[in-house]
Amino acid sequence: MILVTGGTKGIGKAILEKFMQNGHDVITCSRNNEELFALKEELEGNYSTKENPVVLYYRQADLSKKEDIISFGEYAKKIILLNEKEAKKENSTTKGFEVMVNNTGVFVPGKILEEEEGNFEMQIHTNLFSAYHLTRMLVPILVERKNGYLFNICSTASITAYPNGGSYCISKFALHGMTKVLREELKEHNVKVTSVMPGPTYTSSWEGAGLPEERFMPSSDIADSIYSVYSLSNQTVVEEIVMRPQLGDI
User: Fold this and answer.
1) E-state strands within 1-55
2) Model pTM?
């Protein structure tokens, strides 16, 4: 079982597709309940069969709000613990909770001295606090099992200060820093931690930019890289994945 926040579009959806193709049940969330319902219909229709059933669990949540973070975390924990119970049964093919991906994020351009009041708080709450609180709620399950993987979807803005990046860069630098701390804290518990830092990826954030789609990375490439890293042996962890379009940043 894998949990991915913000799974209805872009990188999040691509990650769900990749893991469901390979037999994993998934849990996700989004602010839009209709999009979540449509996602469940689409992905279960594409990847679930009688021989290899896979399930998409979802909950509507706005992860810029702490109460929604906690509500989604409690829902996810309930599903995960039921799944863990099923995985322990004799002859069960259920894999149990293995992977958590903090993917939810928002980008609002602006310079620090000029951006609108509240822009900083909104992006910090969405891009950083959601990952912090959900990690504290759910990663202890992986610690108890002494196995699992945490991926935080950071950005090349986590390591490069972009003009007009403002509070977005601040939030992503902080998320990358948190990921590095978690790597140190969780290694003794056999929980792997990776910062994923993609550059411009073709998602809804770039719609209307006036640039050709081929100038961007496809979301599926990010998902493929995450699945490849997840598939490595227990002796190896990839601490950072940095990906950019072949022609460089935009």
Assistant:
1) 2-5, 26-30
2) 0.94
Supply angle C-alpha 67, 70, 76, rounded to 5: 140
Query: What is the number of other CB atoms lying within 10 angstroms of the CB of residue 76?
Result: 25
Q: Is the dihedral of CA 79, 176, 103, 237 positive or negative?
A: negative
Q: Which residues contact 89 (CB under 8 A, 6 or more apart)?
A: none
β-pair type (2-5, 240-243) = unpaired
CA-CA distance, 2 to 99, in Å (whole number)? 5
Digit-by-digit pLDDT tens for the chain (250 residues) are 999 999 999 999 999 999 999 999 999 999 999 999 999 999 999 999 999 999 999 999 999 999 999 999 999 999 999 988 888 887 777 779 999 999 999 999 999 999 999 999 999 999 999 999 999 999 999 999 999 999 999 999 999 999 899 999 999 999 999 999 999 999 999 999 999 999 999 776 666 667 788 889 999 999 999 999 999 999 999 999 999 999 998 8
DSSP 106: -
What is the pairing mode between strands 26-30 and 2-5? parallel
**Neighbour-count burial of 45, counting CB atoms closer than 10 A to its CB (0-12 exposed, 13-18 middle, 19+ buried):** exposed
Strand pairing category for 99-102 and 2-5: parallel
